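Quick one before lunch.
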Amino acid sequence: MERFLPVLSSAKNVVVLTGAGISAESGIPTFRGTDGLWSKLKPEELANFDAFLRNPELVSEWYKHRREVTRVAKPNAAHTALVEMEKLFSHFTLVTQNIDNLHRRAGSQNVAELHGNIERNYCLGCGKRYDGEDFDRNNSFQCPECGGLIRPDIVWFGEMLPSDQWRTAEVASSEAEVMYVVGTSAVVYPAAELPMTVKSHGGMIVEVNIEETPLSEFADLSIQGSASEVMTEVVEKIKEYRRVAKESK
Ligand code: OAD
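Model of the 2'-O-acetyl adenosine-5-diphosphoribose complex:
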């Protein structure tokens, strides 16, 4: 990492792409791997529109359960490090595949949520929004206004990404000098395209993961370790490098 510090410290445009691994240390299960959500449940059974229409009560209960898990979870040191990192760069975009809202709760500002946000819901009939904890206290999956079905505002399998969030992610990636790819298996498209967009114009990829992924061979720097430890260290090293560089001027 020392070798790359000059570039990491002087970059003007920085993007971070995060996945479920960054929230693992907050106690939120990832999707793949032996303990992952998709090892116990099949995405086709719960995470798509047809499953919701077939059994809205079951799918809604599952998301209610996941909201309970995410609400008791707290942002960890990796989320906090990214809040600090945002303050260090003039153009900083945090692109997340996570729906758990932990980046916003930690205090990150410029966040593109590619797969939606589990705290938001809307009625398929009248479009009324049902956001935050009040929804679980006061409502079920049926809209009190029109009787329509209320669904979570997240991207299910087979659905398009929210176009404004995707556009933000694409533009930021096309300008990024450095992209950190943190805690994602990097196998789900179109999010997995973004590191390639960075590489295609000569940007640098820094991967942070506890294990190798399909992206590792393309990464300029692949750091194996937990997101919280590595990202805290990266931010500290950038600050230190800048401090020393300023002093030696
Ligand atoms: P995955 O479960 O596919 O991958 C999680 C990654 O995090 C793996 O590569 C782990 O090695 C890594 N990891 C686990 N703990 C870590 C830690 N403490 N520090 C660093 N890395 C760690 O999750 P995603 O890549 O986010 O989409 O999955 C992408 C999308 O697939 C999700 O957004 C979701 C899912 O289907 C939708 O639901 C639309």
